[in-house]
Amino acid sequence: MASIDSDSEIIRPPQPPGILRWIQENLFSSVFNSILTVVLLPAVLFLIYQILVWVVIGADWKAVSQFPLLYAVGQYPRDQLWRVGIFLSSLIFLMGLSWGRWGGLLRSISLAVSGFFLMLAVLPFQHPALTLGMRLYLGSNLPIALAGYLLGKKTPIKDYLIIAAWLLVPVVGVILLAGFESSTAIPAVQTTLWGGLLVTFLLAAGGIVLSFPLGVALAFGRRSSLPVVSAFSTVFIEVIRGVPLVTILFMFSIILALFLPVESRIDRLVRALMAVTFFSAAYSAENVRGGLQSVPLGQIEAAKALGMGSLKTTIFIVLPQALRAVLPAIVGQFIALFKDTTLVVIIGINDFLGIGRSIINSDPEFVQLRTEVYIFMALVYWIFSYLMSLASRRIESALGVESSL
Amino acid sequence: MKNSEPIIKCRGVHKWFGEFHALKGIDMDVYEGEVIVIFGPSGSGKSTFIRTINHLEEHQQGDIFVDGIELSRDVRNIEMIRMETGMVFQQFNLFPHLSVLQNITLAPIWVRNWPREKAEDKARELLELVGIPEQAQKFPGNLSGGQQQRVAIARALAMEPKIMLFDEPTSALDPEMIKEVLDAMINLARSGMTMIVVTHEMGFAREVADRMYFFDEGRIVETGTPDEIYKNPQEDRTKLFLSQILHH
Asked: In the prediction, which pLDDT does B3 show?
């Protein structure tokens, strides 16, 4: 390295301001701002104080704390809970495995979930739901996550095996939850008994995983040069986007049932899943189409000049760039879908929100406590939505660093 | 060598964009190992012509044969010709979501069906050739324009083409980066590659071109060796254009 001016003084970047400086610049930068600070600061502190007092002393969390299992799984038979447990633990194991292999955000998620369970397991008071078996189960999830991590880190497991496991475990898990009519080991559990967070997650995750490829297919369909394909895609997208989700849910839950013979009736949870999937797919399709349009023609020409056909050009060049461009919009769509699943209440499915409402309505005493119940539920929805947006930002910045073109 | 069949043979090639007649009957023979420079004012059809050779633009009349294969609407013919002809673009057109190494190995792996190791060895060898072996793991967005264009050359060469097409490869570059790209192209020309280069870099033409074509308004106005074109241009339009680009 030939340096031209090695003798000259090195100029350091300016230091970030200290606390006092920050306060001065941000709170007392002018007379008006100083007055604003003096007036508002006590008001804000007072408000926070009031909220804390209400949460700790004023509020009665009975309607929340008495029914943890109801919020978690609804009416799922309590003697069959081990099935939910196995499903959940295999997901946590997979998260640990992927964390060991790829690192990143899955570390935070798997540790947060299993750590939260461990915290529940060692709660220093009695609760009817916290039996010894439940405490042991909850506590075992952190070791399970760590075991997955070590397996992914230390052994040369192939990437595609992990991806295959991610595809396989949810399917097997749902079959395990549903059981079989003839089986004694895992007797059938009607989906009418499923509820709570279990149903919310199944609908949201199922909707996301299924609607995304459907949305991509519709986006390509709409741009297709085949008139039939493009007309079908356009009509599908515009019709679904033109009606409220409630309407689609009703259509799938009632009208579809009217037309199909009784014996071939699709399970109503599956019908609800179909409704949210189609709804979300129509919106995803438009997002993806926007991304497809943002890929410069030169990229396609470069791929073609290398002898790549249309399919390879799409898979390797167009789609990755299109999806990266619209990732924030797609994640926004997923978050909306997650919250939209609450609408299944109106077709009689007891998702998380539905359970909360039925608890409130079950006892006149709880009607008085509905504020607490709704605040609790809002908090839960917010935590998961925020996790998703956090994940989106991590992915975005990971992709952004790789290329700033 | 020139006794054999030309590797590129164009006869009466016409091309319209809507009503606009962009190419008005181009005839050209290019033999293996030749370096052809095409120059001319903007809008003269020189880029359009070179893009018809690998069918990025479709010619509507006339015949083009590349390496004995006729360029028709048959998709298999088109893809076969594209495998044999590498192209370097004015705007580089590197794939921004792939690393330099992935940019170069993508087509050999998925079009030529090479094993990954072979493709990567070839890519490293080519990066060495264009003088940037240390940039293999970087992404295009982190490279200078000159480096990007040299990656683009390596990417095209990785398919082991018989012909290389250059569409104004230095026009989008800052002046200090033009030389590094031209050096790579000169090396390539001296290694015996058949090249068609659309460029106004007259130094490059003088150094390696076997023949030069002057395009104007969709026609070939004049053709000759660099010596003939520079020292003794026959046509007034050629003289005028040369005086404009050489004296600024």
From this structure: 54
Q: Does B149 touch chain A (CB under 8 A)?
A: no
Angle formed at CA A294 by CA A289 and CA A300, multiple of 5 degrees: 100
Rounded to whole angstroms, the Cα distance separating A356 from A196 reads: 8
B/e letters for A61-96, b = 16+ CB within 10 Å, e = fewer, are eebbeebbbbbbbbbbeeebbebbbebbbbbbbbbb
State which residues of chain B have pLDDT below 70: 1-3, 247-248
Distance between CA atoms of B227 and B248, rounded to whole angstroms?
A: 21
| pLDDT, average across residues A112-123 | 89
In chain A, residues with a C-beta closer than 8 Å to the C-beta of B155 are: 306
Enumerate the residues of chain B whose CB falls inside 8 A of the CB of residue A324.
97
User: Could you write out the DSSP letters of every residue in A187-251?
Assistant: B---GGGB-HHHHHHHHHHHHHHHHHHHHHHHHHHHH-SSHHHHHHHHHHHHHHHHS-HHHHHHI
Backbone angles phi, psi at B77, to 5 degrees: -60, -45
pLDDT greater than 90 at residue A191: no
Rg (C-alpha) for chain A, rounded Å, is: 26
For A139, other C-beta atoms within 10 Å of its C-beta total: 16
φ, ψ of residue B167 in degrees (nearest 5): -105, 95
Q: What's the pLDDT at A84? A: 92
Cα–Cα distance for residue pair B26/B216, rounded to 1 Å: 11
B96 touches chain A (CB under 8 A): yes
Cα separation of A261 and B196, whole Å? Answer: 69
Phi-psi label, residue A222: left if phi above 0, alpha if psi -120 to 50, beta otherwise: alpha
Q: What 3-state class would DSSP assign to A181?
A: coil
Residue A113 near residue A63, CB atoms below 8 Å? no
The model's pLDDT over A15-28, given as tens digits with 9 standing for 90+, comes to 777 788 888 888 88
Give the model's pLDDT for residue A390.
86
Cα B150 to Cα A29, A76, B87, B132, B156, distances in angstroms: 53, 63, 12, 8, 10
Q: pLDDT at position A401, please?
A: 44
d(CA B242, nearest CA chain A) in Å: 30
Q: What is the pLDDT of residue A7?
A: 57
Q: What ipTM does the predicted assembly reach? A: 0.91
Phi, psi for residue A11 in degrees, rounded to 5: -95, 120
Residue B71 Cα to chain centre, angstroms: 17
Cα–Cα distance for residue pair A366/A63, rounded to 1 Å = 6
Q: What angle do CA B102, B104, B107 make, to 5 degrees?
A: 95
- Check if the beta carbon of residue A91 is closer than 8 Å to that of residue A98: no
Check residue B248 and give its pLDDT. Answer: 57
Q: Do B95 and A302 touch (CB under 8 A)?
A: yes
Touching check for B82 and chain A: CB below 8 Å? Answer: yes
The reply to whether A311 touches chain B by the CB within 8 Å rule is no
Q: How far apart are the CA of B234 and the nearest CA of chain A, in angstroms?
A: 36
Cβ count near A380 (within 10 Å)? 16
Q: Which of residues 143-202 of A touch B (CB under 8 A)?
A: none
d(CA A205, CA A194): 16
- Nearest-by-CA chain B residue for A308: B111
Q: B97 and A307 in contact by Cβ < 8 A?
A: no
A297 touches chain B (CB under 8 A): no
- A92, B24, B117, B227 from A144: Cα distances, Å: 7, 73, 37, 78
